[in-house]
Amino acid sequence: MSAPVWNNKVVKWVDDRLPVFTMMHHTAYEYPTPKNLSYMWNFGSLAGFVLVTMILTGIFLVMNYTAHTSMAFDSVERIMRDVNYGWLIRYIHMNGASMFFIVVFIHMFRGLYYGSYKAPREVLWWIGILILLAMMATAFMGYVLPWGQMSFWGATVITNLFSAFPIIGDPLVSWLWGGFSVANPTLNRFFSLHYLMPFVILGLVVLHVWALHAVRSNNPTGVEIKTPQDSIPFHPYYTIKDLFGLGVFLIFFAAFVFFAPDYLGHPDNYIPANPLVTPPHIVPEWYFLPFYAILRSIDFAIFGIPAKLLGVIAMFASIVILFVIPWLDTSKVRSSAFRPVYKWFFWLFVIDTFVLGYCGAKAPDDYFLGIEGLHVITMGQLSTLYYFAHFLVVMPLVGKLERTKPLPASISESVLKGGANA
Amino acid sequence: MRKFALTAIAAAFAITSFSASSQAAGNAPVPAAQEWSWNGLFGTYDRAQLQRGLQVYKGVCAGCHSLKYIAFRNLTDIGFNEDQVKAIAADYDIEDGPNEEGEMFSRPGIASDYFPSPFPNDQAAAASNGGSIPPDLSLMTKARVNGPDYVFGLLTGYEEEAPEGFDLAEGKHYNHYFPGHQISMAPPLYDDAVEYTDGTPATIEQHAHDVVAFLNWTAQPELEARKSMGMKVILFLIVLTAMLYALKRKIWSDIEH
Ligand code: HEM
Hints:
The complex is a heterodimer.
Chain A: H1 9-17, H2 20-30, E1 32-34, H3 43-62, H4 72-81, H5 86-113, H6 122-144, H7 149-160, H8 169-177, H9 184-215, E2 231-233, H10 234-259, H11 289-297, H12 307-320, H13 325-328, H14 340-361, H15 376-401, H16 411-417
Antiparallel strand pairs in A: 1-2
Chain B: H1 2-23, H2 47-59, H3 82-90, E1 93-96, E2 105-108, H4 122-128, H5 147-156, E3 158-159, E4 173-175, E5 182-183, H6 204-219, H7 223-252
Antiparallel strand pairs in B: 1-2, 3-4, 4-5
Bound molecules: protoporphyrin IX containing FE (HEM).
Protoporphyrin IX containing FE (HEM) binds next to helix 3, helix 5, helix 6 and helix 9 of chain A.
């Protein structure tokens, strides 16, 4: 990395004292990037864009929101009706949460497919998982704020999960609630934390990008950058590619915001919260459904450990297990493009997460896809089993047994031969 | 590019299937889809219909249901001028106060007042309706799955007699679309329930269509502004994205990739 020369006097004066311009030059301009990244590498910058969008719209929402159980719902309706462009700000924020998860889930599946979690990118991957956990906490607490029926009952169901822990369970739940049920103190602390967490995420993203720049981007071949011919500077090549991707993404985003703003939400959340009326189906937002299915699928006790506690453990384990996959995956080859067997298991795993999502949306005793005799709970259990088996059995075994395709000698060689799929 | 398109399609498909499946619930039949004027990308409200719907709300529903997020001033949105709004507001008695003597008093409504609620509190509402509280209607079409179709189905889906073998509780009415089929609301609409000032034939279907249209406006008053802005935003984004794509091709043209 050569140090840039600053011609502008002011820039130079500042940079000599605090080298922010040099740092920005290294990270966003000169950063050597593999020349063969596919559009799958757009989703990181998209996630960053959505994060900023969420923070900005959030700040404007707070200016008109009232965190009190007797006023929260009305204040949101006031935003929708009386605040100038309040509906726009709220619908962007509401749908932005869904967009964030879509983008980050694709980003993570990309990492899984191309083995981006393997050495030397383990810490980068870990920070990503922390970001996911922080996003989930943020989204959950944000959903409580409008104080509709799903806000209230979703909060009640999820916070109640902690009561599954022996001895500390009940005191823990009262402590979370700040009382003996989800009520005004709960709403207030969720509001406070919902404002705080995005900035924690922002900090984690800085670490994430820092780690990324230390280890460099992976690429579709999974072969590291070896010679200068393998890489190109980030600017202008990837700045323009990311901008184009952003344009496509914004069209998708805008289609929801302007033409189907409530499509991803639940109608019950337009009914003010009522602790005396339980909705017939309490369903979390779509991005929690696979995890919800895992939680519910444990309906049996093992060794006297109650089902509820096992469910909670399984749900958290489904994310925590991601921390150790750098070691569960025994393959020497990163990219699934060169792993003819694992590739199939990867797609099976993707399908499995969709099946889990479907199961999470349905009542346990419904029929799966209407198939007579096949209950959602059974299917949820099978897919939960496969979810863990993928990491605990498939990853170690296939890595050992599979005969991988020959890797290209370098990124440039693969490019000349027509890419990772050749 | 191909992969990118596939990804986008897969993502769109995924969320569609998720949210469709998360909303299919309940034991009631799916109400038939109606042709609403605001359907589709370009659909807008029909002002005359909204005004008829207001008449139905005022003449029928307002006896039991509040509409608390709507102020009289909002009615300019559905085509009334300010004098008409003042006249509509003045028809209502609004409780105000306390005055200098500390007494609450009643005065004619003004444009900035909200539609007053028919009952002073939930207990009074429940007491007059066999124990059930008539819900506020401002957000009704957003608060039910397929809201407009559902409310239309509900209003026109009564049966005088419950089907053979159905155990209808005292004071309840049989309705095809209400979950569980037993509703405390007596059939509110009938032919000629209100006489339309614009001479539209006052059938029960007409009443139901009109009042649902009105309620969809109360739930989504921003709908027209939102869609027309959406058109402009998306057109702009398509042009911008096409230009970015051209630029991307140009910049990358000297790179083997
Ligand atoms: C707020 C959310 C996130 C933001 C803003 C973000 C941002 C980024 C950016 C800008 C990149 C470089 C561009 C790219 O490769 O796509 C990146 C790479 C990466 N991210 Fe994230 N990320 C987020 C969440 C996550 C999560 C949840 C994970 C996984 C647990 C993750 C794992 C990774 C990995 C492994 C890489 C390197 C990928 C490679 O080069 O193949 N990220 N991230």
